[in-house]
Model the fold of this input.
Amino acid sequence: MGKTNQGRFFEDYSVGDVLTHAVPRTVGAGERALYHALYPARHALYSSDTFAQSCGLTASPLDDMIAFHTVFGKTVPDVSLNAVANLGYAEGRWLAPVWPGDTLTSASEVIGVKQNSNGKTGVVWVRTTGRNQHGAPVLDYVRWVMVRKRDIDAPAPETVVPDLAKVVAPQTLVVPSGLTFDGYDTALSGEPHRLSDYKVGEQIDHVDGVTVEEAEHMMATRLWQNTAKVHFDTSARPDGTRLIYGGHVISMARALSFNGLANAQMVVGLNAGAHANPCLAGDTIRAWSEVLDTAETSAPGVGAIRLRLVATKGGAPFALRGEDGKYLPDVLLDLDYWALMPT
Amino acid sequence: MGKTNQGRFFEDYSVGDVLTHAVPRTVGAGERALYHALYPARHALYSSDTFAQSCGLTASPLDDMIAFHTVFGKTVPDVSLNAVANLGYAEGRWLAPVWPGDTLTSASEVIGVKQNSNGKTGVVWVRTTGRNQHGAPVLDYVRWVMVRKRDIDAPAPETVVPDLAKVVAPQTLVVPSGLTFDGYDTALSGEPHRLSDYKVGEQIDHVDGVTVEEAEHMMATRLWQNTAKVHFDTSARPDGTRLIYGGHVISMARALSFNGLANAQMVVGLNAGAHANPCLAGDTIRAWSEVLDTAETSAPGVGAIRLRLVATKGGAPFALRGEDGKYLPDVLLDLDYWALMPT
Amino acid sequence: MGKTNQGRFFEDYSVGDVLTHAVPRTVGAGERALYHALYPARHALYSSDTFAQSCGLTASPLDDMIAFHTVFGKTVPDVSLNAVANLGYAEGRWLAPVWPGDTLTSASEVIGVKQNSNGKTGVVWVRTTGRNQHGAPVLDYVRWVMVRKRDIDAPAPETVVPDLAKVVAPQTLVVPSGLTFDGYDTALSGEPHRLSDYKVGEQIDHVDGVTVEEAEHMMATRLWQNTAKVHFDTSARPDGTRLIYGGHVISMARALSFNGLANAQMVVGLNAGAHANPCLAGDTIRAWSEVLDTAETSAPGVGAIRLRLVATKGGAPFALRGEDGKYLPDVLLDLDYWALMPT
Done:
């Protein structure tokens, strides 16, 4: 098997390494339509050229999560092929819209390593940047994963744990050039609620649920060229189940959040995220949100809302952790992000 | 749940109300490809730019049912979220082709209300119009649904039952500008049969069947941004099944009807339609048609054929109703439409 | 059922007949995205406009298998509706890239007929050519199928067995105009291995597996407008299973072969192919390859590699035939093709 990629192990990462991820990807009208077929996505800015134009953009950009999944998918062969767990995200910012026809590349810098006390695994932190065909960054985020060692006797590297912001400072969020919500039409966007209608601490049950199927999550995950075996091959896990890509749950929950957050249009910051429990075909994904903060931006009529987005596979809304402080078994995702909303 | 849409109830509709449906939608090459992946669609005018150009069009338009489903899907949050049943269609006309890149919006006028004698529900009639980004109407049809009352004690409105045509008069059908079938190539279209080869009363068994899967009907229904719970959430119905969107059956049957009606190219009128029985994943959809009428148009070589299209989930072709006058249990759809066909 | 297509039977084919297959098809950005959703396709030339441009092309062409499936699909109603078995392929050459927006047509010439000794079936050989909207051939291949006779008493035709090349001579392979691998970037393509790194006789286990679902293979097969009943209708085969289109297995195996053959970029020749055993939903498709030959081309930096691509549904890699010379029961596909690779 000398020609095939066995992936990197913990001892293959050194702080400062830059990994150029393979297979640039041109995304366009097809990915856009598939996104709408795979998720109940309805945010008007990503559904309609005319709505996007009324917000000062030249056309409807591709969904922010298409950018995220595409950039993330490219990292899998270099970062997570031998990963035991995807531990967290931080300092994520969307830096420019992705337009149909853009070609995305992805590269990651290793910014931290820490061997675990068991000596069998370690944690690797990478800062991943996605760029378009002009070399302009479209997305930047930190992810850390637990990775197996190839050789248990390999010496532990010097521990470097990066100092990461708990929250992306709202003044550093990037508002797309030209964006304005001054002429924002709430009849067409689907809901009347503006930023001032949301209060910090407010919780919203998004009501709807989607029971997920194997064919859907595999199509989605392949679309992002994420090839981790556990998503596709029933022989990859002892119980014969296929683990659903965590990003599929993110997109499903974000789409479901339209019902109550139709005007949280653009995702611009990723503060934190945890895939709390595995999701499998047959699960019915539901979602609820909590307003964590609001902020101003310098763009006309454009504010920012910080949201906790929780996906569950049942159970009551608004329940997150048990008395032991651990995520409840029905919780799939706990995501902390910034979105742009009309003021 | 103050931020989420609870939908309208019977007493929320008044004759003369105009409902602007949210989330305009740009449709294009991706929706076109997905339509071909989800249905065995083969009508040449919607498959090939060159064939469409040989018929006088600038390019291949999107399938007429893409227009219908997109316009219909937008009405769901305002019209059918609390609907008990979709009762009928009438006076439907396709008014202009939808081209890749067009943005569709949808609005409905309430044209009738009638409370049922049980006092718990009522029937609402709406005339829905889909428009493109130029404001030009692309589709117009009447639909009536049975809707729950929120408050059983709310007073009954004055009954208004609209006077609807049983059939769209053929002289009012709109033939797309420039369309000609004078150079129509039956070798490329797939069948030699022209309008004069079909006789009123003739019945055609379309032979082929498709066993439907959950992933497929959910992808289709999401693509049209139709978010009715019963299609997606196994907990929405007592028996845990997901009801297949009636429009999925329409598109499947229309696509199957290629085999015998390959030259019934463009759907231009919707006279009536009934979703006779629920369709579920695992059902094998088959279709048969009956020729109801033929007519002339003013376009070169272009005639019109009125067809009954029946979808079934088994049973013998050409059986529609039992001795009691009710649809047989295997009948899924009884659709009455006009299509354009070379003379 | 006088209007529907019953398909041709053995006695309907005569050597020299040219069959014009119906329903030209425009393919584009949507088909491209669906191809990436249905298969784990990652070859950089088909994923990225910028990568394709660095190889001298104007943009990323559609995957070579999209051309194959589209051209093949059109032949089904005329060639394989009454086929008992798809027996083989030979002399296949890709003659020009297919670009988004191209419209493909397909025609076949009957080049051989041979009635079987049982008198009930016969073998038909056809040479199929796919052309684009400019009339330029994009693909040419020979296929032979076993077809039922309509009338067992029909006289046997004179036997004509075409003389077919065992291998497409490498000097006749067509390299797309402008293609150069002189600036080929192996960091972006995903693997460092060039033609000189592969040795004749070398075998590569592609490691990954994909468990296939009904919804996926049906969507793929419909996308190519291949309407053979056995792929869609659970009542078409005695055991209620849906037979997966052999081309679905070809595309899945080719995509899986990225892992070890990431630089076998363009498929340009089809020497032979056998669908060894049926594939059904639930099977986990794996693949292995064997290097059969290498050759030069006149294009800068572009060599050719001849590969055997074997798809299995389990079992050990590199096992192909039993002691009886027959394919092992786990073998799905044995394909012999030429691809272009940087030297």
Q: What stands out?
A: The mean pLDDT of chain C is 96. The two ends of chain C are 57 Å apart (CA to CA). Chain C touches chain B at residues 1, 3-5, 20, 22-26, 28-31, 33-34, 77, 100-101, 103, 105, 133, 213-216, 218-220, 222-223, 225, 227, 229, 232-236, 242 (CB under 8 Å).
